[in-house]
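#struct-help
A.M.: can someone run this one for me? Single chain, 261 residues.
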Amino acid sequence: MAEPNELILRSDSDGLARLTLNRPNARNALSVALMDRLKECLNEIAGDRQIKAVIIAGAGSAFCSGHDLKELRAHPSADFHAKVFQDCAGLMMQLSALPQPVIAEVHGIATAAGCQLVAACDLAIAAHDARFATPGVNIGLFCSTPMVALTRAVPRKVAMEMLLLGEMIDAETAQRIGLVNRVVDADKLAAATEEMARKITAKSPYVLKIGKEAFYQQIELDLKEAYAHTAKTMVENMQAIDAAEGIDAFLGKRSANWRGC
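D.P.: on it. Structure tokens below:
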């Protein structure tokens, strides 16, 4: 088993951070230590103006199998269980609050809280061999916290079917229902994910931040409030240096020189 400082492998390249869950022998189950380390990495990235996008991947044969059931059974107290699920909820909300877009790179299985992790990322690309499920109902532990992200990513009845049946769905089905954006051959997964990420890193980091923030704020509002909020965001955006630069570059038929403000 990896030491705590190796539970997440981070590599940065030209504005892109890749975070790899590194518990391959446990199919990257979300232990307390792994979640803590992932949150630390996200905190570091949030304040790093050089990073414009993030990829989350998994080492070994799986993306993420969910919570570490052995750890949960080894610590049966309600206090420990409360910490685990609160920590996980905090992690998922941290992904939404992160200024940079996050892409899940999914292979193998993404089950229970692993499926939640995919749903909580802004975008997701899956290999054809990827499988997804919220199977807690099969072992007496309904996937209540995973359904928060799931029900915000896929239609309600589809989510209920996944939650009540606990069956695996394939990558093509996951794409059809909106859980993932694209499905590619396994040997092209990393390249396809990086290609999407590179398209994002070419944009203004200020615009990415303000746009992602507005997306998650407006989606919880009613129609009138959503339009009012996003109109205010557009006004703020129009006053930015990058908006002036981007519009001038478009009108002048040249490449924009982003300032990040």
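A.M.: thanks! The CA atoms of residues 224 and 245 lie 31 Å apart.
D.P.: also worth noting: The beta strands are 8-13, 16-21, 53-58, 102-106, 109-111, 123-127, 131-133, 169-170, 182-184.
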